[in-house]
Amino acid sequence: MQHVDDITNWKVTKSNELVKAGYTLSLNEQRLILFCIAQIDSRKPFSRIKAVTAAAFAAAYTLETRHAYEALEDATERLWNREVKTRFEDGRVEKVRWVSKATYDRGNGRVTVNFSPEILPFLTLLNERFTSYDLRYISHLTSTYAIRVYEYLKQYVKLRSSIRVTLVDFKEMLELSDSYMRFANFKARILVPAVEQINSHTDLRVSWVVIREQRSVVAIEFRFTKASQQEELPLLPVVEDLDESEAA
DNA sequence: CAAGACAGCAAAGCGTTGTG
DNA sequence: CACAACGCTTTGCTGTCTTG
């Protein structure tokens, strides 16, 4: 996992709870977080502390190294105040910080991230209800919403070929409840770009239809399949992979 | 009329270039 | 490596037309 040039098989694994939680991250913050998560062995407890070099970050997301410094510095700075909101059945909302410490080592182009203790249950010791995917599939997505939607669909892809989600829940997940009061805007700015990016860069092929009540859109039904070509790539059944490989 | 579609404006974000 | 500046993209909103 240390080799910068070999990110092809890095997997991001997180609990489905986290996949569906409400949070906002800029693209760079999202990239930084996912890069760190990809280095975690989700089956085990772990050190909480992950280091990211500009070179490794640039390699993972196909940027020129010299451009990665400021992206990392900026993302690190902003990550400090970011939080994850988990909504419970009874309406309770629990907020948790992503990081308890995040420092950019100026002069060395290196970030050290300490995940907060409260976020760890979403990332480690996972053996059920989790989602796993290859980091490389989202590495070319340029909309943070595209990444969120990809993860959301990915959690269902083994179980079914479509999922219906209410517009309210969906916007809540993306922390857009108070924005995009007009569906057309949400569609044009979020849905269409996200699905387009997912279809052209990831292993999922997605389409969607709106569900209406009267004339208002109340839900979205996503339909998806795994792309046939990508299927031939070394994408082992996730559960087996996690249970068996290098466990000892 | 209410809600969606479409066009366009503006701010923020992202990637690049040039400079030191 | 850092910083300033530029240009393209992403994101959020408004005006206006279209539709059932």
UniProtKB/TrEMBL annotation:
Any Pfam family matching the protein: Rep3_N
Domain Initiator Rep protein WH1: 11-154
Swiss-Prot/TrEMBL GO biological process terms: DNA replication initiation
UniProt superkingdom: Bacteria
MF annotations from Gene Ontology: DNA-directed DNA polymerase activity
Family classification: Belongs to the initiator RepB protein family.
Name of the protein in its database record: Initiator Rep protein WH1 domain-containing protein
